[in-house]
Amino acid sequence: MITTTKELLAQAEKTNSAIAAFNCYNAETIQAAIAAGEKANKGVIIAYGERYQDYMNIEAFAAFTKALAAQASIPVALHLDHSYQLETIKKAISAGFSSVMYDGSALPMEENVKTTKHVVELAHAEGVFVEAEIGSMQKGEFSDEEEGDGKLTDPAEAAWFVKETNVDFLAASIGTVHGMYKGEPNLQLDLLHDIANSIEIPLVLHGGSGTPEDQILKAIDRGIRKINVNTEISLAAVKTIREQLNENPTIHLSNLMTAAQDHMTEQMVRIIEVYKNN
Ligand SMILES: [Zn+2]
């Protein structure tokens, strides 16, 4: 069934778990994420980023996801990931996304607050929830996200930002990267603890790919309720495609894509099982 990001994160709060938000940009990624949620018996967030408009039309994406969600045995929420343009946010709201992320983290704080406030007003008027980010994440390997300066989130600034903007979820920068780590992952868990104590809304962790399980579990115990995963799944699909093509260079495209989808599903089930924090 279709649900909202807010509802999924509220359930995660009750069970001290986190919900996986998988970046999706075509039929196979959406189908893999929903199938994985069903296999693991846990709700999932289908996250579409602004830049994916080149790969799949936003209205078509929403309609396709909603049609599959209606038949799914688990709750599925539609979320707009990293967006920089108001135009995209308005399109997502009209298309029926339950939540949108406005990423003003690269802007001067005053401008980030001003624009985020505006997005919150637009979205809340339509019953849509808003995620924002303060601090800025660096880019690791194989990511298609923007580079950030790696500035960690300051707990007092986070509290002030949430109060000023009235956002519903906050992405904090605590040492993860977008993409795969170049060095040793080292999450700032004490900082996360302080941020969680200074705000009352659910916290989001971007850069789930390649983060060791023990650090993920500690982050969940300190209040992370949504974890974004992108690069790890893309790498898994590309690996399968490469293997299939090596084995059979004239494989039918439908079989090739199904193999990629099945491998993505397997990886997503593994990730959701970790995030359950049993
Ligand atoms: Zn992100």
Written description of the protein model:
- This protein is α/β, with parallel strands linked by helices and 278 residues long.
- The protein has helices at 5-14, 27-40, 58-71, 86-95, 109-125, 155-165, 189-198, 213-221, 231-247, 253-275; strands at 2-3, 19-23, 44-49, 76-83, 99-102, 129-134, 169-172, 203-205, 224-229.
- An eight-stranded parallel β-barrel has the order 2-3-4-5-6-7-8-9, surrounded by ten helices.
- Helix 2 (27-40) packs across helix 10 and helix 9 packs antiparallel against helix 10 (253-275).
- The structure holds zinc ion.
Secondary structure layout plus pairing:
Blueprint: E1 2-3, H1 5-14, E2 19-23, H2 27-40, E3 44-49, H3 58-71, E4 76-83, H4 86-95, E5 99-102, H5 109-125, E6 129-134, H6 155-165, E7 169-172, H7 189-198, E8 203-205, H8 213-221, E9 224-229, H9 231-247, H10 253-275
Parallel strand pairs: 1-4, 2-3, 2-9, 3-4, 4-5, 5-6, 6-7, 7-8, 8-9
Helix pairs in contact: 2-3, 2-10, 6-7, 9-10
The protein binds zinc ion (ZN).
The site of zinc ion has 5 residues, from loops.
